[in-house]
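For consistency, the fold was encoded as tokens, as this record shows:
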Amino acid sequence: MRSHTGLRALVAPGYPLLLLCLLAATRPDRAEGDPTDPTFTSLPVREEMMAKYSNLSLKSCNISVTEKSNVSVEENVILEKPSRVELKCMYTATKDLNSMNVTWKKDDDLLETTDDFNTTKVGNTLTSQYRFIVFNSKQLGKYSCVFGEKELRGTFNINVPKAHGKKKPLIAYVGDSTVLKCSCQDCLPLNWTWYMGNETAQVPIDAHVNEKYIINGSHANETRLKIKHLLEEDGGSYWCRATFPLGESEEQNELVVLSFLVPLKPFLAILAEVILLVAIILLCEVYTHKKKNDPDAGKEFEQIEQLKSDDSNGIENNVPRYRKTDSADQ
């Protein structure tokens, strides 16, 4: 009776606003307990999620850390689609492990301990395990297990498959056609997209609109961009982007378009040097040949030598000679 009386009192005139406030306060807030939020720790919701994603494939990874580890031990975990993930860190030490503390971090954020974490000790080995479900791109990143005050850690880098292109710039010439390639190993992207970079942003390439481009690929894990009738302004950066259910991966390719005069410049410089050298050699040969075939030049040279000889003899003959007399005769 009291409960009915209280309810009638709330519904009575003058209290409709209070009733609405009470209903709003007791309404579950989806922002605080969104089942799609990985940080939501309500046990019933987590069990519902585990049941929903129970048919997902399991990805299990292990890392071993020792007390002598000076740097972080890392392992790459590649995921294309939503999966159940099991990360395990094993720490081996010679000292007592009872006081050893283990924490987990997502990038630089500390993860709260829940039922998804499990830590056991067997002998001189401490094992910490973290199980969770990766179902969106926000959950990609670095997951680290941190041991003790020295913060010895093992790190799992969870990412989508990496797209690979040509590392060195591709060189082509004006008027030609060229093909840029991208691929990913052991993966099946949902689609591939090509972009051309300008000074400020990446511009999508639509091969259906612009006949200059052709996009195709012989396999699902690769893509090719063919560019026809190249111009110098076609040179620059191109990006291929692979889209997966969990995120995207892209790779940069460089294209350099040259005119035909560019490769000819070194050849023309060498040719000019050769022509100059040949001209010098020919002039020397002509001069030498002319000197040998000109008799007047030889006679003139002989006359000059004869005059020099006569002049020197004349000087010697004009020198007065004195007769030597014996001192005894005097």
